[in-house]
């Protein structure tokens, strides 16, 4: 007789529980790195509770290859879903560093017109004079800032890095309401 729970129910339970716990784990790691001290431990608690529950169910049917495969597939899917959710939340701030040819007037004028603060520094690159532009923005504004830079310089070299905190600055009114900026001393 075919045991539906052992070969269908348990693997499905394991798969979806693993998606939930790994998604929470992925978000917990991201929130921890961004300093979300209240949310990260809560996610960790729920994550481990789910994990322990799933492991106890798997060990009851220890010879069930389908549950093992569901466990691995749930881990992979949970990682993907956690990254997808984090990308949609777009939490935190980033610093955009763009290295542009000496004439950056178009990019800086547009950044200023849209309310973005920036720092422009003259420099020397391997091909001659350049301008370095530094812009600190919320991750939700990143696409707009990159678009501004690429509109004036389609082949611009730029880097983007996560930023843990910032003190003072110039931010667009719509972005600054959700932007948490640490005050300087």
How many H/I helices? 6
Numbering strands along the chain, what is their spatial order in the largest sheet?
A: 2-3-1-4
Number of strands: 4
Principal-axes shape call: elongated
Rg from alpha-carbon coordinates: 23 Å
Binned, the helix content reads 40-55%
Q: State the oligomer.
A: single chain
Q: Indicate the structural class.
A: alpha+beta
The arrangement of helices and strands along the chain is HHHEHEEHEH
Mean pLDDT: 86
Question: Any idea how many domains?
Answer: 2
Strand content: 15-25%
N→C terminal distance? 73 Å
Regions with little confidence, pLDDT below 50 for 5+ residues: 176-185
Main sheet, how many strands, which sense, barrel? 4 strands, antiparallel
Write up what this structure looks like.
By secondary structure, the chain is α+β, with helices and mostly antiparallel strands. Helices cover 55% and strands 18% of the residues. It is built from six helices and four strands. The chain has helices at residues 4-33, 39-60, 65-89, 105-113, 142-152, 173-176; strands at residues 93-101, 119-125, 128-138, 157-163. A four-stranded antiparallel sheet has the order 2-3-1-4, with helices on one face. A hairpin with a 2-residue loop joins strand 2 and strand 3. The longest helix is centred in the first third of the chain and has 30 residues, at 4-33.
